[in-house]
Design a protein that fits this description.
- The protein has 228 residues and is an alpha/beta fold.
- The chain contains 7 helices and 7 strands, in the order ααβαβααββαβαββ.
- The longest helix is centred in the middle third of the chain and has 21 residues.
- The chain starts with 16 loop residues before the first helix and ends with a strand.
- The model has no long low-confidence stretch (mean pLDDT 96).
- It binds S-adenosylmethionine.
- The site of S-adenosylmethionine has 17 residues, from loops.
Length: 228
């Protein structure tokens, strides 16, 4: 377990498979047969649904130091807390997908329910790991996805962490890494974006800031596409 990590420190809010397809601009058919890593995955249900659609998906997160039931309990509380916190700042978000806080809550509950049930059924697909280090060999995955962590929490994780984490995600991918979003919580391009792009280009990757058909936090409508 990451040193000193307590369950109170883990925020268990996850996206659904459908949200991942939108925010990474992916088509389900394109993923069939691929080995895909979601990191950090938390209580996101991408892996659960992707496996049902013929994808060899693996989820990784430092929170998997806690068992599925403990994360489920925490996730249930976190949905309530997060929705309360969202009420006074709703104008910072685009509501075309979710319409209302109740609508958004339904997506977060679906992710929590499905990811918990799948982790209980297929624990081998949920690997505890703490970025910037991953317990996978080089080029283990065709595609690596990283959502709602890097860049978004730019104030909590410094530039060195971002660069090392991206380098590690690139290392374990044989073809492609996608990171969403590329803005901080203020909706502006992350202060760590340029350093990460320089790192990826220095490794010989092709890097694109690509539009995606998803925007909830205003300004978060692009991903970083890194091709090896
Ligand atoms: C906001 S959640 C995003 C989960 C998922 N990607 C999604 O979009 O639904 C952020 C996740 O990052 C995980 N996390 C925080 N620090 C981490 C680290 N150093 N290594 C791996 N996971 C970490 C947390 O446990 C949490 O599950």
């Amino acid at each position: 377990m990451s040193e000193g990590m307590k369950l109170e420190d883990v925020v268990c809010i996850g996206r659904t498979h459908g949200e991942y397809l939108a925010l990474f601009d992916l088509a389900s058919e394109r993923l069939k047969g691929l080995r895909v890593l979601d990191c950090p995955a938390g209580v996101c249900s991408f892996t659960a649904d992707a496996c049902q659609h013929g994808v060899d998906a693996v989820a990784s997160d430092r929170a998997y130091a806690f068992d599925a039931s403990a994360l489920y309990e925490k996730g249930t509380q976190d949905i309530v807390t997060t929705m309360k916190a969202l009420e006074p700042i709703q104008d910072r978000y685009v509501w075309s997908t979710y319409q209302t806080i109740e609508g958004l809550t339904a997506f977060r509950r679906e992710a929590l329910e499905k990811s918990t049930a799948h982790r209980k059924r297929s624990p081998e697909r949920y690997v505890e790991a703490s970025l910037p280090q991953l317990p996978f060999t080089d080029s283990s995955f065709d595609l690596v996805l990283s959502a709602n962590f890097l860049f978004l929490y730019e104030e909590h994780f410094d530039e060195a962490f971002h660069v090392q984490a991206l380098q590690e995600l690139i290392r374990v991918s044989s073809r492609e890494v996608r990171v969403y979003p590329i803005v901080g919580l203020n909706g502006k391009p992350s202060i760590h974006l340029d350093a990460c792009i320089r790192l990826a280009e220095a490794q010989g990757c092709r890097v694109t800031q690509a539009d995606v058909p998803y925007e909830f936090l205003k300004g978060a409508s692009r991903m970083l596409l890194v091709e090896k």
